[in-house]
Design a protein that fits this description.
With about 160 residues, the chain is α+β, with helices and mostly antiparallel strands. The protein has helices at about 1-30, 150-165; strands spanning about 50, 55, 60-70, 80-85, 95-100, 115-125, 130-140. It has two helices and seven strands; from the N terminus they run H-E-E-E-E-E-E-E-H. The strands form two sheets. Strands 1, 2, 3 and 4 form a four-stranded antiparallel beta sheet that branches. A three-stranded antiparallel beta sheet has the order 5-6-7, with no helix packed on it. Strand 2 (about 55) and strand 3 form a beta hairpin. The chain is elongated.
């Protein structure tokens, strides 16, 4: 009988602890205020449109570009950004367009020019670049190659000429 009373006390204590725990959890939840959902900010600001990079001096190196965007509620509608034009890029097709060029072709005897084609490799800052470009340059002198004498024989010949003088 004593054992049954002890079990009832344990059961009652466990039940009270459970009720206390549930009360504590519900009070904590009630104390939290629901945060109103953040309204998605709809901006009428357009995307930035960038001008070409203008070098500070010369035709390559560090420079600046101007950016603009439209929109009545935009905090900033213009800004200037630093930029860099690599000095080893071909500027003929735009300083922001980099091309991978093939080897020079054979000389065209009618025009005395040789050409090669370049495929767009990289465009900086969404520059408007041609996908493929072709460049030409003069062929240079078209002469028959001279048979080469050894340098040693040339030097010896010059020495003998000096001795004879």
């Amino acid at each position: 009988m004593q054992q049954q009373q002890q079990q009832r006390r344990m059961f009652t204590a466990a039940l009270l602890a459970l009720v206390f725990l549930l009360a504590a959890v519900s009070t904590t939840e009630a104390g939290k205020k629901e945060k109103p959902e953040k309204k998605a900010k709809k901006s009428d600001c357009g995307e930035w449109q960038w001008s070409v990079c203008v070098p500070t001096s010369g035709d390559c190196g560090l420079g600046t570009r101007e950016g603009t965007r439209t929109g009545a509620e935009c905090k900033q509608t213009t800004k200037t950004q630093k930029c860099k034009i690599p000095c080893n890029w071909k500027k003929q097709f735009g300083a922001e367009c980099k091309y991978q060029f093939q080897a020079w072709g054979e000389c065209d005897l009618n025009t005395a020019l040789k050409t090669r084609t370049g495929n767009l490799k990289r465009a900086l800052h969404n520059a408007d670049c041609q996908k493929t470009v072709t460049i030409s340059k003069p062929c240079g002198k078209l002469t028959k190659p001279k048979p080469q004498e050894s340098k040693k024989k040339k030097k010896e010949g010059k020495k003998q000429e000096k001795m004879l003088d």
